[in-house]
Design brief:
Elements: H1 2-42, E1 83-91, E2 96-104
Antiparallel strand pairs: 1-2
């Protein structure tokens, strides 16, 4: 009499483990995609003015720096992109939201 109960228990445990493994795989995939999107927005390294502190708007710095031509020679650096950010407000019908606009150079 206990044989059907054991089989149902084993099937239930197998199904539960399968669902847990699937859930972990989906979460890991979403984590990777979110990380790639964030890195795509900001890059791994950002060189900004020291004056920025906690400001969302970047103070321009000249690309005519001593390190600029040689920085691409560092292993792992594939591209240098100039950018600027500006804080702004977007007004909807009922709400006002703060955003940060990011502009990138032609390069």
């Amino acid at each position: 009499m206990s044989t059907p109960t054991i089989r149902i228990s084993i099937a239930g445990i197998a199904l539960g483990l399968s669902v847990m493994i699937l859930a972990v795989a989906i979460v890991a995939g979403f984590n990777k995609e979110i990380r790639n999107k964030i890195i795509g927005i900001n890059g791994h390294i950002s060189i900004v003015s020291f004056e920025n502190e906690n400001n969302y708007e970047t103070t321009p710095i000249s690309i005519n720096q001593d390190f600029y031509p040689s920085i691409t020679q560092i292993p792992g650096i594939k591209h240098i992109q100039v950018f600027a950010t500006k804080a702004a407000l977007v007004k909807g019908k009922e709400d006002v939201e703060g955003i940060v606009l990011k502009g990138v150079g032609k390069d």
